[in-house]
Amino acid sequence: MTTSTRGAAKTPAVLVLEDGRIFRGRAYGAVGETFGEAVFSTGMTGYQETLTDPSYHRQVVVMTAPHVGNTGVNDEDMESKKIWVSGYVVRDPARVPSSWRSRRTLDEELDAQGVVGISGIDTRALTRHLRERGAMRVGIFSGGAVQDDAALLARVQEAPQMKGANLSAEVATTEPYVVPAIGEKKFTVAAVDLGIKGMTPHRMAERGIEVHVLPATATVEDVYAVNPDGVFFSNGPGDPATADHPVSVMRGVLERGTPLFGICFGNQILGRALGFGTFKLKYGHRGINQPVQDRTTGKVEVTAHNHGFAVDAPLDKVSETPFGRAEVSHVCLNDNVVEGLRLLDRPAFSVQYHPEAAAGPHDAAYLFDRFVSLMEGQRA
User: Fold this and answer.
1) Average pLDDT of the segment spanning 359-366
2) 180 exposure class (CB count in 10 Å sphere: 0-12, 13-18, 19+)
3) Is 362 a known active-site residue?
């Protein structure tokens, strides 16, 4: 339930965590109520791309950077057609945006899309709480939605959890569409949309790839109906343990030996397809400054992340799978979480982070070139 934000900056708002911790501030964006999983993002910029990333579906994002909204909102940096976050938490929102590209304020955009937020709270204390206790359910209440604390806590504890949530079909396209190659067409890729960001097919198009984006419900037959040179599995929200259909489709692709590339949720799908398990991280990795080592080269990359689940695969050995040998190709230097997988006997690999760099550093752009090399090798 949301209402207009006219005068919202003076409207009291309450953030209630499922363990009973409460923060009080002011309404930001729409006034009303919202529920989701409380997570924090460590990026100091790129908030517009974060808001429109489908992987944030059903999550309330806490921005660790104190100032948010400085550059307003433009019409070019959207990663999808709408804001997907369930709620937004900032400490000190910009009063006036400063960018020649800005078309409206962030507050106005949140209001227009009905996104309930809160400002004026100690986001550092909230982030420390989530790091210690873990990501958890949360509610934001403002205006007429505010009740006594006990009643609000009870409502938060009734909200659905992220573990066990099957969300890809809720954010994916319902109809196939094509992103044409830029310049000479060299390859055709079938991209299974599990929550794809707009910049991802664009990065492939820049390399001469015609991308056929397919719904999350696409079958193996749908994938091969476009006669692909390669197959891509995108990022997306939810618990990979529920994604039985994408896992089945990926196994069909692996059986045929078609070059395969997955990112984020696609990495978890590959892990499951190979027989590995997945698990929920305590508070996940989110932001554009996460250090990852490419174990095949030893290079350390600064990378963009948005995931709360990870693959449970051994770091210290090559594993035997139904599709040949596999190894962990990338690892997070903060906590040794698996950040990439590579098959040694078939042309398939994946990473847990976002090489499309929207927003984020460009250290991982080579991964799209690696995908092109696999397709070139298969064609040769």
Assistant:
1) 89
2) exposed
3) no
